[in-house]
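Reviewers of the previous submission asked for a worked example of the structure-prediction workflow described in the proposal, so we include one complete record here. The input consisted solely of the amino acid sequence. No template or homolog information was supplied to the procedure at any stage.
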Amino acid sequence: MGQSVRDGDLLSAALSKEPLFPDMTANIAEVGEKSGDLSGALQYLAQENEREVDREVRVLMTLLEPAMIPFLGTVVGFIVLAMLLPIFNLGDALQV
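From that input alone, the workflow returned the following structure tokens.
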């Protein structure tokens, strides 16, 4: 992609050829090139991408939180059992 831009292609044309970038990226870059405000268009695109990532992280954390509660409860239960079991075994050994 960088080589095609260095060769004189428009950034939007180079972005549209790359499968890594969504079509919206190339379209916004094209609008920015035609309007003469490429930096503003790319800044808008960066803000939109940041909002989308924040939204996806929020959803992931919302889904992950209920799954973590039983897992952490099990871990704490094993720790409590590991601490109390030797005490109970010691009491049994003293009675014999």
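The helical segments are 2-6, 11-17, 23-35, 38-95. We consider this example representative of the routine output the project will generate in years two and three.
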